[in-house]
Amino acid sequence: MELKSSHKCFGGTLSYYSHAAKTTDCEMSFSIFLPEQAESGKCATVYYLAGLTCTEDNFTTKAGAYRRAAELGLILIAPDTSPRGDAVPDEEGWDFGKGAGFYVDATEEPWAKNYNMYSYITDELYTLALKNFPVDGERIGIFGHSMGGHGALTIYLKNRDKYKSVSAFAPIVSPMECPWGHKALGKYIGENRESWATYDACALIRAGGDASSSPKILVDQGLADPFLESQLMPELFENACDEVSQALSLRRHAGYDHGYFFIATFMDDHLKHHAEILK
Questions:
Q1: For residue 39, how many other CB atoms are within 10 A of its CB?
Q2: Is 225 one of the catalytic residues?
Q3: Is the confidence at residue 3, as pLDDT, over 90?
Q4: Would you call 274 a catalytic residue per the annotation?
Q5: Domain spanning 2-278 has what CATH number?
Q6: Alpha carbon of 255 to those of 87, 100, 121, 267: distances in Å?
Q7: I need a labelling partner for 145 at 20 to 30 A (CA). Which of 30, 89, 99, 157 fits?
């Protein structure tokens, strides 16, 4: 693991690392914020998964998260959204390939060798963080935006032993029902739609059955989001949660779009949501 840079940030230290990842067979990068509390013991930790076209830098530079994370004593880890490098296959367009790993494990060629972001997040990076940083393994949460919101919800719902809290900004809640999802799942894991359900938050929440004892899920959605009706459709997740008695706070905000000003506005609420569950 190679340290790219490190600097003090709002009462903590923000560092960038790169490492040779086995799951993606390429160099992967991530940023990690360590609050001052991490100097004296293990801390609750929250992973942030970014959306289409993003890297680990988008959260770091635009989300405005570190001041409140320092106050709450939260470690924040932000990985890249896909494998990178000249040897990694790609295609033209911004919603598939590099920058658009969709947090799935690809089974179709030529994507299967590198595009294994689900295993990278839940296994390789998860283990690396536990071994190298003061991460409390019993207090880990996950959140994300758009494609990353899809990743956070599906990873949480399939790995509740690892992740104890979840939230999302404008998530893709049902890839089975939207064009982004059809393109990504069809190319990464094939046209058998039964297999798509394993990466669909609405299908997963229903498959899990009664969730009345599960922690509340927080979702924020801007009503001026241009992707709201065609790609995001939060009402589908709202209905699925109702069916299994999953506590959900779905907050709809007039005037907010899909960008990072929206995320920065409500970031404190998400960090407090995770801190309260992980305390």
A1: 11
A2: yes
A3: no
A4: no
A5: 3.40.50.1820
A6: 42, 27, 33, 17
A7: 89
Q: What is d(CA 254, CA 68) in angstroms, rounded to the nearest whole number?
A: 25
Cβ pair 32, 66 in contact under 8 A = no
CB 68 within 8 A of CB 170: no
156: left (phi over 0), alpha (psi -120 to 50) or beta: alpha
> Per-residue pLDDT tens for 145-157?
999 999 999 999 9
146 is known as an active-site residue: yes
90, 105, 200, 225: which one is catalytic? 225
Mean pLDDT for the chain overall: 97
Local structure of 232: helix, strand or coil: helix
pLDDT score, position 4? 86
Tokens of 261: 């000003």
Domain residue limits, the chain: 2-278
The catalytically annotated residue of 145, 150, 258, 274 is 258
Pick the catalytic residue: 146, 165, 167, 214?
146
> Are 24 and 116 within 8 A, CB to CB?
yes
Taking alpha carbons only, the member of 163, 144, 128 closest to residue 52 is 144
pLDDT digits (tens, 9 = 90+) for 126-152: 999 999 999 999 999 999 999 999 999
| Preceding amide of 83 cis, omega within 30 | no
- Give the integer Cα–Cα distance in Å for 102 and 104: 6
**Residue 239: enclosing H or E segment and its boundaries?**
helix 234-243
Own/partner pairs for 128-131, CB < 8 Å, 24+ apart?
128/1, 128/19, 129/32, 129/45, 129/77
Give the whole-angstrom CA distance, residue 21 versus residue 5: 19
